[in-house]
Amino acid sequence: MSLLPDIALISQVLIFGNRRAFDALVRKYQASVRRLLLNLTAGDEALSDDLAQETFIKVYMALDTYKNRADFGTWLYRIAYNVFYDYIRSRKETCLMDEVSSEVEMAYNQAPTESSVTADINEAMRLLRPDERTCVTLHLMEDLTIDKIADITGMPEGTVKSHIARGKEKLVTYLKKNGYER
Questions:
Q1: Separation CA 119–CA 39 (nearest Å)
Q2: Which of 47, 103, 106, 133 has its CA 20 to 30 A from that of 147?
């Protein structure tokens, strides 16, 4: 993988139409974008793959709008976040992620290769409201700071902190009830 900074790769794509430069950006960020979406969809691999692909298509189409005001990764996560919430809105499911179609439930229950710990974490993540899940995922799993999460989600920093605190509390409660102790 190229060690060029993101802005150099973006410039190569925009100025020279260099698709390999965009491929380098995709390779650099695809695992983290997919992981984010996998957590937001409570473990639905097929859906998270589809949303990740849609994210990178949107990134490619909107690359000329990137103004380098924020880190490219933050901008990319914002697009992934919007793609996920566009999907939720299109499904008219803006309340709880628990209501995401029975397809997600079936895909989750039929995943034979998931370890029991991963399955329990995914189940615990389903208990969180979408905003809580987003903030917890970005903070704990993607190791982003509160201010970056606020940039990505458009929420005030205090709201992000509250979602993280409530989300962590729900996760701890669920996991303790299911035999996980510190």
A1: 11
A2: 47
- Residues 6 or more apart whose CB falls under 8 angstroms from that of 153 comprise 78, 81, 131, 134, 135, 138, 160
User: Would you tell me how many other CB atoms lie within 10 Å of the CB of residue 83?
Assistant: 23
> What is the model's pLDDT at position 37?
94
Residue 109 has pLDDT above 80, yes or no: no
Calculate helix-pair angle for 102-109, 116-126, nearest 10 degrees.
160
Cα 134 from Cα 68, distance rounded (Å): 24
Q: What is the largest CA-CA distance in the chain?
A: 56
Please give the pLDDT value at position 115: 65
Sequence-distant contacts of 172-180: CB under 8 A, at least 24 apart: 174/123, 174/124, 174/127, 175/120, 175/121, 175/124, 178/120, 178/124, 180/120
The count of other CB atoms within 10 Å of the CB of residue 137 is 22
pLDDT tens per residue, range 11-30: 999 999 999 999 999 999 99
